[in-house]
Sequence to fold (191 residues):
Amino acid sequence: MKSALKKDLSNFQENLQTMEITQPGISTNSSLTLREGLERYYQANPEFVRDRDLWVGRIRIPWCDLQRHDIMHVVTGYSTALDQELLLIGFLLSSLTWRRPWYYYAQSIVVFLELLWLSLRGGTWGTVYYNPIQVCRFYLRGIRQGFTVCKKIDAYINPDTVLDRNLVSLQMEYGIENAGAWEQPKHPPVG
Fold:
């Protein structure tokens, strides 16, 4: 049994090294740290708020929560495209520890409902339109994927404690395999 698990883990590591994330500028290079991946993420998305709180109307979103969200984009490989955001918010609903700020639940559910309502009225998010069934499928697929993690992600995690960790090791620790926007391997897996 142990040898089969070691072989599966070895195959998984080999496959990760031949894959790339479709998020621009982020790679599964086995030596890439989360800090380096996050920096590439921000370089690919220069308009994103960094190092300060974000105000949405009268609601303040603390920088630490924004940073955790961006970190999850890097760790999961989900891009910032609308379908990938729906996957991510569904994933976060079910993959985080249940002890979390109340607004994490509201964020996931309210954003989903807002996008579903927009879709039901025939509206688009930017230039992208997904019908209501697609919106539900993306969100539910993210929720299902979140239930597959082997270790729940601490909703209160201090980003400073993981920024210098190897990105692949974080993905392996939590069991985040082939999540979201992964491309197919460039070369077929051996074995």
